[in-house]
Amino acid sequence: IEKMGRNKKDIRNLVSNLPYEGLGKTKQPNRYFPGNAIKTTKYTLLLFIPMNLFEQFHRLANIYFVCLAILNFVPVVNAFQPEVALIPICVILSLAALKAAWEDFRRYRSDRKLNNTPCFIYSRFTKSRWKDVRVGDFVKVVCNEIVPADLLLLHSSDPSGVCHIETSNLDGETNLKQRRAMSGICISDPEFKPESFNTVVVCEKPNNNLNHFKCYVEKPDKDKVGTGIESLLLRGCKMRNTHHAVGFVVYAGHETKSMLNNNAPRYKRSKLERKLNTDVIFCVILLLSMCLVGALGHFLWLQALPSGPPYLVPDSNGHLDSPSLSGFYMFFTMIILLQILIPISLYVSIELVKIGQIYFITNDIDLHDDETDRRVQCKTLNITEDLGQIEYVFSDKTGTLTENKMVFRRCSIMGTEYPHKENVKCSTFEHALTNSLYIIYILYVSTCFGGFAAIRLAVLGEPESGEDVIPDRKLLQQISRAGNCSGSQEIDPYLDFFLGLAICNTVAVSMATAQRQRVNANSVSLPHIFTSWQRKPKRSRSILEDLVVEEDHFNPPVKKEDFEDTTGLQMCSLHAPSDTNSDNLSYEAESPDEAALVYAAKAYGFTLLNRTPDSVTLRLPSGEDLVFEVLDTLTFDSNRKRMSVLVRHPITREYVLYTKGADYAIMELLVKTEIPWQKNIAAGTQHHLDCYAKDGLRTLCFTKKVVSYKEYESWSVNRQRALAAIDHREELVMDTAVQLETGLSLLGATGIEDRLQESVPDTIVALREAGIQVWVLTGDKPETAVNIGYACRLLEEEDLVINMSCKNKLVCTSILDCTLEEVRRYSEDPRNVDTTQGISLVIDGCTLTMALSSDLQDRFVDLAKRCRSVLCCRVTPLQKSRVVKMVREKLKVMTLAVGDGANDVSMIQAADIGIGLSGQEGMQAVMASDFAISRFKHLNKLILVHGHWCYTRLANMIIYFFYKNVAYVNLLFWYQFFCGFSGTTMIDYWLMIFFNLFFTSVPPIMFGIMDRDVSAEMLLGVPELYRMGQGEYTFSTFWVSMLDAFYQSLVCFFIPYLAYQDSDIDVFTFGTPLNTISLFTIILHLSIEIKAWTVVHWVIMLGSVALYFIVTLVYSAICVSCNPPSNPYWILQSQMADPMFYLLCIITTVVALMPRYY
């Protein structure tokens, strides 16, 4: 707080607008802050044309063609009619401008709709609009309404001061988040009175961090109350499960956190586009060389003439330009004449092709997930071809390779392991439906506490979600004994363990939202077959005596009308009995781990009934409800790797801290003791954790600490001071958490299963066969990660696995050097030339930190590139991004990163292509990605099939574009040798423009969208084709096409020239066969390149030829003097009546295409 006073430039003071209502704008205290109206449009009506042209001229090609069009207006250098030269560039610029205008108009309509959304502002006392909201206003938001600005929550209709919001519009997460009204600020329950707010709100300046907010409220008595993100309602969130809430506007309009995060789509340049720019430079050099030849030839031709030729008209003074000056002018004339050597429509064609490719990717039925009804999303439109160039894939594990649907499997309590074998078994009842029908029975509550036994049935082989947990019989007996002992509820560690499971989390309990379905859709109700008894026990018995129901008891049929008879016989359905309220609850968890633990506690009778910011209500197996007062929640962070909840026990009144976290983060915080049995508990639990990890389970440790009143009071003062701080608030808050989380007593540990997704092993093997190296970067323990690595075939049984784990940099250096030397020696051994030894590397986070240091980085990269696969364990999000950047920059390779959670965002953004997987952890990864998929297996077809197709199609189309333009423009160049390099043409100007703009523009676009060199089945069956297809666009293929273009242009020009030599035909009669032959050659050249013909191919190819003849015939018929002094009137009609024309078209086209065909 003291630092905040010194750094006033980093904070803002806000007061209520109510006392200043009706005064002028200059007297408003918050007048310097922007309003809530937003404007996301780029242009205005008056400035659209200049701004759009300015943007389009950032593309050098557009500047090039505009300069040439302007140059054509200079009389001494013009090659065409000036107006004609403007047509191509005007068409291209107009199409791009129309596209930009349409997109901006859509943004304008969206802004207008959003700004006029109704809302309730207390200071106006009327229904207002979003654009009327100002900083300092009080805004009321009702259920299912969207929050119009960033609001500091002051009041909620909920008696506990809580409201729930859904942030899916911001981060994609559909789980409800709890927000808490600031306590002690507005004492006006049940109705909120804004007049009572007479405090000053001091908060940080606007920033784009959605997860942090620093603020405190200063009361009139100078008392300061701090708060954070837990009291901030962000613009764009939707109010849920709360009748209404009132907030104070702290940020409005473009200063809100959501708008500051509303960045434009990231622009990425593909590898192919970078190569394209290089080839454009080569074409420019080629163009300048041809123009230089033309200028020099014109100079030499004029020099050879004995006197001035009669067709050169002198100026008004009778003066003719010198040959050198005329040659200089001719250089620019030739640039104008041969300008189409640089394909003006190539960039527009590439954009159209990519749109078509994206359409086919997004509509691929094989990339659609039926379970979630989601299809692949392409969020970055200009790098589709990079999918065909991938060399390294970096993947997260949890939620990416696995389902991220956590199932509670095993636990260890006080050093004793409970394997929950029933959780993986299934019982067969031959009397039900079919002989293969598997029935799971789940028993919730102990009858020894006066409860009842409820049997839930599902057509399942084993539990499919965290809700389906079959209690361990041995553990049930232990809990039964603990519950029967008088007073044991206060001290028994088994009860404490399950209290920790139910309390130590952030799971929200809701009755208003739709209850999740607890059985599969194919579950079958069997009320006419199965029954269970409900009756009060006459004696205290073991839980298993009442809970374990023999199969024979289910055989007698029971009629439906007997459901509630006097004998107590009750029908059993797939849902819990109607007289228990706990089964009507719906849990909203921020992570599947927490939900699995809460459902596990519920399976043993410890049911989480309600959670507020100040209390947690639990139901014990006995049916008794306990309300724990929540004193503070120490939330999870990536540095501490744990979370804690400090509560006051309702029976003992003790201050109890329950903590859960990663084993390595918990074990070092345990209370130091020399008592043998306590040391044995820690050692046994650690052994069980290692076993769980080897089985591929996710592990967590649970602890308890009783905090004295004096310690709590001292700690609470520091905690409140940290929460009220503005500067370094996160560090201070974390320090207070670390201060309390010491001297912990171990309760136990849990093992949660996260199954592999379908076809993950096949996908990894296919990627590896395609020549792609796969790395997995995970935060799990090495034992867990290695187990999953073998399961998904990242690691093979015959692999040589190198394990790198050390604490000292000197040791790390030594291990790295020795390992690298051995690997090099093996690869250089002549006996191993034809062998493919599989080498895999497993490295933990601590060792990776040292390996990424500047002095060891090169050696680590050298080792890693020699490994077939790399598995990095215990890595942080920052380490993930550093690894991706290191490999991309050091090895100069194309990288792809795939992940599903917020911790994968930095890795996804660091790679050349980022793929987000829409799983169980929200949509942050999807929102930051270039492509989004629903299953890891979709990566197989996305890369190996669509990636290959997109790259080969676009690469071949670009090469064809260059070929087409060079082949056509060279006809004009060869003609210059026979016209004195005068810059004249033998083809009409309009037909030259139509040739590239209409006659030959659509076929290459169709080629780039629809061609398939190899079928999808072949690409999936032979992944090696992916690597072979990455050489489509190289330096050699480009220049081979250029040479082919030169050859074809020579044939297309000189065969007709020799045929018409010494004849008296005019220039256009000579040029028309050249134009027609060039069209046939270019179209048939593309026909040779097409690998998969469809009806669309035939229609477009034949349609282009038909369009040429129709337009040329019409133009020749109506254009009498379109291009004076010469004109093309009736030229083509006369040619088509001459058999020589057809003979030339056939012979020349065949000769031109023979090298390409063979």
TrEMBL record:
It is found in: Endomembrane system; Endoplasmic reticulum membrane; Membrane. It comes from the Eukaryota. Its main location: membrane. Its EC number is 7.6.2.1. It holds the Pfam family PhoLip_ATPase_N. Keywords: ATP-binding, Endoplasmic reticulum, Magnesium, Membrane, Metal-binding, Nucleotide-binding, Translocase, Transmembrane, Transmembrane helix. InterPro entries: ATPase_P-typ_cyto_dom_N, ATPase_P-typ_P_site, ATPase_P-typ_TM_dom_sf, ATPase_P-typ_transduc_dom_A_sf, HAD-like_sf, HAD_sf, P-type_ATPase_IV, P-type_ATPase_N. GO terms for molecular function: ATP binding; ATP hydrolysis activity; ATPase-coupled intramembrane lipid transporter activity; magnesium ion binding. Its cofactor is Mg(2+). It is a multi-pass membrane protein. Residues 29-84 form the P-type ATPase N-terminal domain. Signal peptide: none annotated. The chain crosses the membrane at residues 60-78, 84-102, 276-301, 328-350, 438-459, 497-514, 958-977, 989-1010, 1037-1059, 1065-1086, 1098-1120, 1140-1157. Mg(2+) binds at residues 396, 398, 900, 904. This is Phospholipid-transporting ATPase. It comes from Cyclopterus lumpus (Lumpsucker).
